[in-house]
Amino acid sequence: MIRATGLVKRYKDVEALAGLDLAVPEGKVLALLGPNGAGKTTAVRCLTTLLKPDEGTASVAGVDVLAEPAAAKAKIGLSGQYAAVDEHLTAYENLVMIGRLYHLGRQRARARAQELLERFDLTEFAGRPTKTYSGGQRRRLDLAGALVAAPPVIVLDEPTTGLDPRSRQLMWDVIRELVGEGATLLLTTQYLEEADVLADDIVVIDHGRQIAHGTADELKAQTGGQRIEVVLTSTADTETASAILNEVAVGEVQVAAGGRELAAAVGDEAASDLLRVLQGFEREAVKVLDVGLRRPTLDDVFLSLTGHDSSENESTEAVK
């Protein structure tokens, strides 16, 4: 339903996309992950006809995005990073207006607006101008607007950034419902948790090109699957604790906080490895404040794949 081959986009001396390939089967969710400035939003703009790539091809629901942009737009619902709503209209008026622009007809546009207000828990605010809405309410309204025409392909560009936990969970529930109804989604996000919950497949990009592809579990496995993390009582035990961790570690033991915090990626026998470490600590009288297993975070994956974490702004941020 979504296919891109060799997408290239340049801005003067910056190559925002450097030959990106994507493929999303019908009824599936592909999450596009990457640090700020990686090219996620540029890719979205190219796929949704808002930006013409310098090289490459793209299609949505079988329609060539470059050759037939108007026909492609009719297949796409887009919710961008910033809520595209008229601040002087109410939520109801915004949705009715979008319905009329899609030529749904007055009655159908009104009925569809009411359906979406209920679905996104916005009926309580439906009669107020959207300039009085919170950020979460505006994001929910923006996503509702992208669904007015019930498009088969939905593109969500960082839809939950800045939302409170309740609003984020509501958005996740709606996205699951859409996929259950047969929609195909392309989702860009900086949250591995979000991709883990929603995505069937994940593509990680950096500097405009794909650097990893797989499920959330497969990507996490690339950083060692799970990690043993230790907080020592005293840095006097750093060398001994590091040596014990090194016996089970996949790769180098990471040391931080002046030697009090240590972390080691481990393999498939994580529980057994943790037991060995605890036994080693007891044998060598290493005193700890905290020790445990955890799965990699988004920053662990990014740090492993790109050498920097997801919060860093790249010099290409301006081209997003």
From TrEMBL:
Pfam family, one: ABC_tran
Alphabetized GO MF terms: ATP binding; ATP hydrolysis activity
Family: Belongs to the ABC transporter superfamily. Drug exporter-1 (DrugE1) (TC 3.A.1.105) family.
Annotated Gene Ontology cellular component terms: plasma membrane
PANTHER family the UniProt entry points to: ABC TRANSPORTER ATP-BINDING PROTEIN, DOXORUBICIN RESISTANCE ATP-BINDING PROTEIN DRRA
Main location class: membrane
Biological processes annotated in GO: daunorubicin transport; doxorubicin transport; response to antibiotic
Topology in membrane: Peripheral membrane protein
UniProt-recorded name of the protein: Putative ABC transporter ATP-binding protein
Gene3D superfamilies: P-loop containing nucleotide triphosphate hydrolases
Keyword check for Isomerase: no
Provenance organism: Nocardioides simplex (Arthrobacter simplex)
Domain ABC transporter: 2-232
Keywords linked to the UniProt accession: Antibiotic resistance, ATP-binding, Cell membrane, Membrane, Nucleotide-binding, Translocase, Transport
Entry-linked InterPro entries: AAA+_ATPase, ABC_transporter-like_ATP-bd, ABC_transporter-like_CS, ABC_transporter_ATP-binding, DrrA, DrrA1/2-like_C, P-loop_NTPase
